[in-house]
Structures are given as C-alpha cells and as structure tokens.
Amino acid sequence: MNTVDALPTTMSANTSHRYGPPAMLQWSTVDRPEPGEGRVLVKVHASSVNPLDWHSLTGTPWIVRGQSGLRRPKSPLLGTDVAGVVVAVGPGVTELSVGDEVFGGSSGAFAEFATSKATSLALKPPSLGFEQAAALPIAAVTALQALRDKGKVGAGSRVLINGASGGVGTFAVQIAVAMGAHVTAVCSGGNVEMVRGLGAHEVIDYTSSDFVAAVTQAGGVDVFVDCIGNRSIRQSRRVLRTRGVYVVVGGPKKGRVLGPMSRLMKAAVVFAFSRQKAAPLLASLSTEQLTELAKMVEEGTLAPVIDRTYPMSQAKEALEYLGTGRVKGKVVLTADR
Ligand SMILES: NC(=O)c1ccc[n+]([C@@H]2O[C@H](COP(=O)([O-])OP(=O)(O)OC[C@H]3O[C@@H](n4cnc5c(N)ncnc54)[C@H](OP(=O)(O)O)[C@@H]3O)[C@@H](O)[C@H]2O)c1
To answer: How far is the CA of 292 from the centre of ligand 1 (A)?
Structure first.
C-alpha cells in the first residue's frame, strides 16, 4: 500500500462555488486532492490570508477571472500560503520526500490537505513554527522581489515603503533594513511604534502628514515600494531621485474590470520618457527565495508580524478581517491538530 492509500479519501475544506463575499465560504467535506506530475500532497498545519485570496474569492477585478474561471470559480478551494508536512509525492518529484516539513505556495491551502508544485515549496527549518512559516510565502517573497529584483536596493539606498504596516510592508521594512538601506515608512499613527520597532529609520503618519511633500523636501528616494497606490502616478514619481525606481506592488481595490492594471498602464505612459523607472511586480514563489527568507528568520533579521490567528474552519472571519484593509502584518489560519 502506498502512502496515499493510507490517507482518508475526503477532507474538510473552505469552499465556495460562486464568486462573492467571505460570508459565502463554507466549511465542508470534499474529495482529498491527488498530487499530479511534479506536485506533492501536503497535510496543512497552517496557512495565511492574502489580498490574492480575496480577489480569487470575490472574482474582482474581473481580469482575475481569466485565470480563476469566467462565470464561477474553476475550483471551489481557496488559499495559497501553506506550511505543513509532505504526505505523498506525485510522479517526477525528486526534491521532496514524505515526512518533509515544508512551506510555500499551494492550491487550496484553506483545507486539511493541499497540493503544491515541488518548486514552489522549501524545507521549513525546525526552529521555525508552522504558523511563522505560513506567514511568509506571498508577502515576504513579494517584499524581497520588490526590493532586490525590481529596486536593486543595496547598502546606502534610500527606500520609501508605503503601506509599511501591512503583510508585504512589514516584511519590506525589515528586508530593506537588512540590506543596509535607509528606510522611510508610511503608516497610520496607531502603527508608527510597531513599524519603528521593525527598524524603519523614519516613519511618516499618513493621517497627519503628506508623505509625498515630506519625502520630496527631504531629497527624495532611490526606490519607492508602493503597496497602497493611493497617490497619482505623477505625485508618486515626484518622490524619486533622478534614476529612482517606482515599484508598483499594490493598488486601490476600485476599478471593477482592470483593478490595479489600469494604474500600471498609466505608469507606463508617465514614465515613458524619463530616466526614472516604473517597475510593476507580479511576485512568483521559488524554493530558492523561500529558503533565503527562512534563513533570515532563523538568523533573527526577519520576524513575521502576526496580527491574528484563526482556526482553519474560520477562514471566512479571517478574510472578512483582511477585507477591512486594517491588518497589521499577517493573519494566520491554523489547522486543528
Ligand atoms: N504585485 C504582487 O505580486 C503582489 C503580491 C502581494 C500583494 N500585492 C498587493 O499589495 C497590496 C498590499 O498587500 P498586503 O498583503 O500588504 O495587504 P494588507 O496586509 O491587507 O495591507 C493592510 C495595511 O495597509 C495599510 N494601509 C491602508 N491604507 C493605507 C494608506 N492610505 N496608507 C498607508 N497604509 C495604508 C493598513 O494600515 P492602516 O490600518 O494603518 O491604514 C494595513 O496595515 C495589496 O494591494 C495586494 O493585492 C501584490
């Protein structure tokens, strides 16, 4: 008997058969997935919620339906970030074995079991808890790719992070500091001390100061990592030094059809004839980068900020909280063990 045969054929999972708000999610019994070519089956110990899950659940902006299904979701399962134990491997997988503790990206992680591409997972260091590991994948990899791959941040770079108190922002502040950058962070008054505690050199409270004016007057920055997109492209460009890079990570939820895509198109026009650059980011998970982030956590240069933890069966409540836009760091889901 192989390992898959020893597993239950059904599992509990958060499911939704139509696009809509988190209230539509149901904790139900479904068939356990099988790991296909190049994939492994993970027993989920923890997951975390991301705006991506919100978009997949609600089917907004409509452009996401190109991937997830035009009229209704192709799969009723939800959830990307995962941390757990490999319980079966599909054909062609050589990197991982049954019993490995892993974290990374998956399909349908808000469930008892999920399948993942082996190349989207990394081994979880024993010193890292499953909850900490589950907080990392999308948000921390996005922060790393924004700063290193798009921004080319190095020691002495001046970096501005808008949305510094959110999932991506809390990682971006710490990673930029670890890279030796001088970090200016933007958040609301209640989060100033938390963000300062992450190592930001300067923190601007957006409820009482205009960060574009303040940063421009202070001489500008080399890299602007924008997780919020609440200022016009022209205003955003003003904070950049002559060869500065505007890294477009997130944008406002408005825009039913294209969402943040329309902002990217505007950025392409505004930056067309400039020595400054607009760099849109679409993050993708890799074993190498996940391993690097886990090493930073082990070494103490990176620590996930976990705002709230919910049981897996309460993904609905976790997504409702994420939808308020007020999350500090990450919201984690834990499996019953
Ligand atoms: N491009 C990619 O590959 C990629 C990957 C991941 C995420 N994203 C996008 O990046 C964005 C951020 O993701 P996330 O996971 O960090 O979201 P998040 O955790 O939900 O962000 C919430 C945070 O945003 C802060 N915030 C809200 N309005 C603000 C404002 N006007 N100015 C400054 N901060 C503000 C909130 O702080 P207050 O309560 O203090 O306002 C809260 O701490 C989203 O749009 C997401 O879709 C893109």
So the answer is: 23
